[in-house]
Amino acid sequence: MASAVETEKCGSAMAAACDTANNNIPTTTTTTTSTTVVSSELSGDDEAARAQMVAMIEEVRAKFLEEAAVNPHLYDPTDVDLARTDDWQVERFILRKKSIEASLEMIKGTLQWRHELEMPQLKDTDFPEEFFKIGAMFEFEKDLAGNAVVYLRVRLHRKIKELEKFVKLYMMHIINKADFAMNGKGLTVVFDCSGAGISNLDMDIVWFLVDALIKYYPYGMKNILVHDMPWILSSAWTIIKGWMPEEFRDKVKFTNKKTITEYIAAENLPYYLGGTSKRNYHQVPKGCRPAAEIAPEQGLNEKEVKKMLKTFQPFLDEAEEEINVIQSLS
Hints:
Elements: E1 29-31, E2 36-38, H1 47-70, H2 77-85, H3 88-97, H4 100-117, H5 129-134, E3 137-140, E4 148-153, H6 164-182, E5 187-192, H7 203-216, E6 221-227, H8 231-243, E7 252-255, H9 291-294, H10 302-329
Parallel strand pairs: 4-5, 5-6, 6-7
Antiparallel strand pairs: 1-2, 3-4
Helix pairs in contact: 1-4, 3-4, 6-7
């Protein structure tokens, strides 16, 4: 697994997004000196346009595989295999960048970033069971458009310097799993701000997620739902939205208890948001170890671990209560 220290290479970034393909393929290609450019004017179901996209995929793929052969130390073999066999893992970059060379450069940068984090090799069991049990970030049922949905409960966040890099790695692991499973069908992230206050605000970690989604997950993000935002945090979200490239700002939507069902059906909402789903969002994956066992691997001593567990114990107790309620509904 990637050490927490390695996540420093990611920079600061978190939560904006890229649109899903939605079967709308940018259409014709125009050849300039050495660059093929995708036109945005043709229809996605135009047979000739699709054939041209397939040709672009093959050209970008060939160029990347040549690069990976020359510099194998920069890329994870798993990602190289995906680029070789999965059209979507190449097409998404073409849809964003429109040209062969720009798409190639984005793929190279993305897969080098993933390799630095050892992201393709990350497993649930690389993270402590407390991360999952608290339920501060988890994937849940799909939204009305069929997009995967990842929830981030801001109220449950505490900014602890010693945990910051490890938490960022965990966040990207959850996002990466959801993105890979959807294979181009889209992702919605819900920033649930209900009950949150200034003590929960962490601009760095929010922007970390936004920036990563923009830079490394093209055509992945469909919506960012900022739910039940208290007025005290409104200025922070204004700043974060302002940091986003203009073309991504319309992905941000603000919801409350009445309007969230315009995006996610009640039967697919988690219990704590008033949903009727009986799925346990505190489920700990099989094989996960307690924080006390994993912490030394991340350079944390026993004293630091005890201090952190004391901070998060109320959330663990709350999770236990929610689990009991959810189980009683089944």
